[in-house]
Design a protein that fits this description.
The protein is α/β, with parallel strands linked by helices and 347 residues long. It folds into two domains: 15-228, Spore Coat Polysaccharide Biosynthesis Protein SpsA, Chain A, CATH 3.90.550; 234-341, no CATH class. It is 43% helix and 17% strand. It contains eleven helices and ten strands. The chain has helices at 30-41, 61-71, 85-95, 114-124, 158-164, 199-209, 240-255, 260-280, 287-310, 315-326, 328-341; strands at residues 20-26, 48-55, 75-80, 100-103, 109-110, 129-137, 143-144, 153-156, 178-181, 213-224. Strands 1, 2, 3, 4, 5, 6, 7, 8, 9 and 10 form a ten-stranded mixed beta sheet that branches. It starts with 19 loop residues before the first strand and ends in a 6-residue tail after the last helix.
């Protein structure tokens, strides 16, 4: 049964502080959900509304959500028919009454001071978006931050932000690494006609609207790798992210030209990430992916010079790009071997 968000009673703020709405889409994550919600409830910043969107989950998730709502009057639950991640997030956005909006995925968890830290940075710099970074959490309990460029505190304009969002090791396109002024979200929502990679267009639009962005590389978000890793994501490989990245390149070309080489590089990384998933799924000979490969190689040929001359790229990554351009078959063999040696790595 769906709950009409507009009919839900308002709950009084307990402090004269900005209200942060934290939106949590919930579906088939009962193994992780307690820890996720508890990490939000336990935030050092107390003036939160925690919106749990049960997206028709068939397990015990609805009961777990309701249990938290009974214990903490900052927790609201929306029960709806299954519509996917975007639908759940959009339902949460409809309900959100906060001055600032954040997202947490329901199989992840966050540091106790994440929202206090992000709001402090945002207010100190008079920014529109605050970014944090994420640690990777694996099934064996180990945590890694090797993918991050450490010790970064950046205050950026929009053009600079389009540079860093396209460089590995900084902030990314995910919805959950951000705290956003509510006013930026007017008429922006998540696309509901796709099955994955919903964050790409959403995040690019947010950056385009932002006047100032602040990023602190201290990891405050714990991103669980059990469902999001490459080998577990191949069942729904899509080119949607590449389409959104190409639109981002056009936007940057028109409005933020100094960031264009980085946008071109970021778009190429998106394409290569998709192709790696196609390889793992053994779908490289399907007609649509043969066409995608041809378009990707053409993209490399057309943009290689500007990327290599303007963006500092590691030697191994350059070799990877050149190998893909020269011989996709050899690239495929090398990548499969690499994945056997490094099964945790996404790219």
């Amino acid at each position: 049964m769906s709950t009409n968000p507009s009919a839900m009673p308002e709950k009084t703020r307990t402090e004269d502080l900005p209200l942060i709405s934290v939106i949590v889409p919930v579906y088939k994550v009962e193994r992780y959900l307690d820890r996720c919600i508890q990490s939000i409830v336990d935030q050092t910043y107390r003036n939160l509304e925690i919106i749990l969107v049960d997206d028709g989950s068939p397990d015990r998730c609805p009961q777990i959500c309701d249990s938290f709502a009974q214990k903490d009057d900052r927790v609201f639950v929306i029960h709806k028919h299954n519509g996917g991640l975007s639908s759940a997030r959009n339902a949460g956005l409809e309900r959100a009454r906060g001055d600032f909006i954040g997202f947490v995925d329901s199989d992840d968890y966050i540091a106790s001071d994440m929202y206090e830290s992000m709001l402090t940075n945002l207010q100190k710099e008079d920014a529109d978006i605050a970014f944090t970074s994420s640690a990777h959490v694996y099934e064996d309990g180990s945590i890694s931050t090797k993918h991050l460029v450490q010790g970064q505190y950046l205050v950026l304009n929009t053009e600079e932000a389009f540079k860093y969002i396209n460089l590995p090791g900084y902030f990314g396109i995910a919805a959950w690494d951000k705290l956003v002024k509510k006013e930026l979200l007017n008429e922006i929502c998540f696309p509901e006609n796709v099955t994955r990679d919903e964050d790409y267009g959403f995040s690019y639009k947010l950056l385009d609207r932002a006047r100032k962005i602040v990023y602190d590389s201290t990891p405050k978000y714990y991103y669980r790798q059990s469902q999001g890793t490459l080998s577990n994501a191949v069942s729904s490989v899509s080119s949607f992210a590449a389409d959104q990245a190409l639109e981002m390149v056009d936007l940057v070309r028109k409005k933020y030209p100094n960031a264009l080489p980085f946008a071109l590089y970021g778009c190429l990384l998106v394409m290569m990430g998709i192709w790696d998933q196609v390889i793992v799924a053994n779908n490289t000979e399907l007609p649509n992916w043969k066409l995608f490969r041809k378009q990707m190689i053409s993209y490399i040929v057309n943009n290689q010079n500007i990327i290599f001359s303007s963006v500092q790229i590691g030697k191994i990554r350059k070799i990877q790009i050149l190998l893909l351009k020269k011989s996709p078959a050899v690239y495929k063999t090398v990548f499969k071997f690499y994945k056997k040696l490094h099964p945790r790595r996404i790219g």
